[in-house]
Amino acid sequence: MWPQDHLPTGVTLSVTLFIILITLIRLALTLHTSIFGRLINTLLGFDAAAAFLREPIFAEHVARVIPGGLPTVFDTWHWLTVTAWAFGLGMALLHENGPVRYRIQFRIVLGLSAGIGLAFLVLSGPARAQGMSSVAEYGGWRYGVYIALYSALPVLVSCYYYVLKIRGTVWRTTTLWERISVATLVLFGIASSLPVCLMAIAAILDAAGAGNAFTQGIYDSVSKGFVSGEPGLFIFAALTLVFIPSSAQAIVQLLRMDAESRAARRMYPVWRDLTAAAPQVVFQLKRADSWNVSPQERLHRRRMEIHDAAEIVARYVAPLPVAVDELVESTVEEDDQEHMRMVAELALACHRLTEGGKDPTGEPTARGAEVPDEQTLLRLWQPAKSLLHEATGLPVERRTALGTPVVQAKPCPAGATPCGPA
């Protein structure tokens, strides 16, 4: 099945495992993506499966447990590659015809790839019956038709993308990485079709009696590359390289290290205190749904919950104690004093509603309060709580080196209310 002078197993195995690893990361961490992204994921999945079956170490083990042995593995590997190109053509159809109209054409393309897979099995039937390793070993016209069918979709995809590029429709893609993906498929389609064209030219010249050692060498080299699958393996690897940044971004999002997750963490102290006082604004998701929420959606929900909770808590504010007002007057810059009072009133109202057990749905105070904007809340929330702690003994949460929350409180000054636990 594979030529004797193939590359060292360590090289091809490393490339195969690289393709599989990047594909698994992308498939596992980009579950919610666009239609274009799902086509990319499926294309990578078929490519990874094809690379797995191409690798001799894996293919020989698989051949022992499936009917037909190595010829069937050979056919399956090439059918998976053809189907991957079918999804590449589906990406072009999507951007040419839109998410509705492309479906019928794409189903026809998938039907053609399924038909090619059946043709592979038929063409390799004699090789299977005679115990040969593949149709390449059997040779003859069956092998020529096999190569033509195997190469048809790559040639079609590259030509179709080229036509779309000339017409300008390929560049309707919405993101930079989608454009890079399309351009990469064009280049790889050309790279895949060039050897086939050379092989066809060599075969035609040989049939016309104009062949020589050079054309025979071209034919043998292309045929050997087709049998070993090594050129296609490195084309798969180059295609996979394009998706390393998106896979790395998915890992960063999983670890909550992306910009949206960091912003949500900065909002957490404000969100925690306000939603503790007005828990009805928090919509509890199921664990599975919470896992699948994107960082952008998580950040948006946190902002909305902070806003809604602040609007509710603002109906329960009371005038600041004299000690707090005097401390604001003496320690806060004049431009921030009014904002600090507004934030401190909200923090005190949160404390009364949470620690005092008052139901937020009960009677609000007669005095309402204006809700500060989000940036003001984030900037002044912790300073306001520290100021309240200093003036009234309101508990302030700090964190130890292990991240464990610890509540600090101090005795209340005379006449200062409310006061946290001593």
UniProtKB/TrEMBL annotation:
Keywords: Membrane, Transmembrane, Transmembrane helix. It comes from Nocardia tenerifensis. It comes from the Bacteria. This is DUF6545 domain-containing protein. The chain crosses the membrane at residues 6-27, 77-94, 106-123, 143-164, 185-205, 233-255. Residues 259-371 form the DUF6545 domain. It holds the Pfam family DUF6545. Signal peptide: none annotated.
